[in-house]
């Protein structure tokens, strides 16, 4: 693999996102590091409050104040982007990083036709004429599988169904040929049958355009089908990151293990699902040490005191003391 | 508070829907209709649905948004009056009970759990008052001490503590709130619970807790569930029987395991095909073509024909009737009836190679 030599497309180093509130500073993302390579699909999973969406918005600099990046850095092709002035970052957004949000209605302007929004975005990032941009917009709509694109291009977002709107959003995200697409729960608001269509479309288009994808979702099924590697987040921290097969089939972190067991599967006859008791801590009540230790079935002595850093295990990294041979006496594996 | 209940027997249905229909009048206002010469428009949310829920079992309805599954849920607890058909609960037709007084004894025996535990609990009430409300409303207990004791029991039944009754809903997480909703639903000793997407708003690990709890309670209390969900994996896990709805009609229903193993209706097959593959077998997903049409203006004949790879002229013109399957379920499909859905035809239509499994 040549990617081992090349600089990763996106490098996130020790990212920390904070929210100052009246009751103190809340840490939504804490010391998070990961890479995304050219053309790779990285899945980011976790339950509500895990900090996965916050990571996505921090990467493209769209954190809503008072949220702020309080530490670490974000590098795109080796160049630091988290400290760029607003205007410069705005040019990168759209041109180099495309964004797809959960609810297509919020990312489309209801007052403008779909065509006008596409043309505007295309012209912001290229020097195409109005007419050429319009032709490109129709092409893009056809590419994302919208029937009769010549007619649809002049329609408003409310005239599209949910699935069709999400296709328009994908067209918008891809129109400047970005190197990276951040998709935040792109299928969560859609019906099952439409979900499958959108996921296969997203996957096909990104590989055709050679774009890498950061796919943020809570749905392990979507990840299993789409991602090359997966990062599992818990309480703002990385629990485990590794190739999708390893994480889905041989989860190492006790949290990932419990999470996988709690998902019902068609064809699997279980009387009871694996149950992780309790729930994710609120940001104001993250326990010391490993944040998962109060719910962990395999908790032992260092867990409530010291915070585990990601430890390399084969092709993965796992933030769990069980994988530190000095701590667990080598007996924790498996 | 101990109640003698007949032992659950698979043969006698506790709840039975017979040609159940609910139409909503969504016409524009009278003046607009007269001026613009528009006819009345009817939304057939539920259009002739029949099924039976045996005592002590779980019957699930699945389908995509707009298929009418939540309307069936509301009909089943008597929140809506059916436009046509009957909903029979333990021998009594709910539609026939047109006064509050006549409805009261039945109402105690059926309860509902809603999707959003943030919207279904009154934020200004303490949890003990929320859970005690059905007890007071049905006059089951009058003494305050007895009510408090019962509320404590109910909270412990859903794996909370009696002390939690002092708190307000906002002090609980989503999963705990859903437990409170369940405790409230159980307060009147119901036999039948209608659960409308009870875990859809929850995270997977919390969903597992609630599903496990619901199964435990069913065993402990002999409850009968009508479970509404769009998540096929959840439905597979919790159900004894499953019905698949499409635009107001029940296109197929049957025993859960056999329906999932041998789906008959092309829509059921496609829905099952659309489930993400967590086992990572490398199976190629065949996305369902097209989208659900508007229920305001559904296609003629079989509603599914525009998306169906097996549709022909008959499907377009004629509404398919229910046919009984050899293993007991029912399906509404001309192609199944005519035996057009052979293995080879299915494989070809779904674009699979002949060698593919």
TrEMBL record, chain B:
- Per UniProt, residues of the ABC transporter domain are 15-272
Q: What is its main location?
A: membrane
Its placement in the membrane is given as: Peripheral membrane protein
Under InterPro entries, the record lists:
AAA+_ATPase, ABC_transp_ATP-bind, ABC_transporter-like_ATP-bd, ABC_transporter-like_CS, Oligopep_ABC_C, P-loop_NTPase
Q: Name one GO molecular function term.
A: ATP binding
Kindly list any coiled-coil regions of this protein. none
Q: Where in the cell is it found?
A: Cell inner membrane
- Cytoplasm as a keyword? no
Pfam families linked: ABC_tran, oligo_HPY
Gene3D superfamilies given in the database record: P-loop containing nucleotide triphosphate hydrolases
Which SUPFAM superfamilies does the UniProt record give? P-loop containing nucleoside triphosphate hydrolases
Instruction: Enumerate the UniProt keywords alphabetically.
Output: ATP-binding, Nucleotide-binding, Transport
Going by the entry's taxonomy, the superkingdom of the source organism is recorded as: Bacteria
Which family does the similarity line name? Belongs to the ABC transporter superfamily.
Name used for this protein in its record: ATP-binding cassette domain-containing protein
Organism per entry = Aquibaculum arenosum
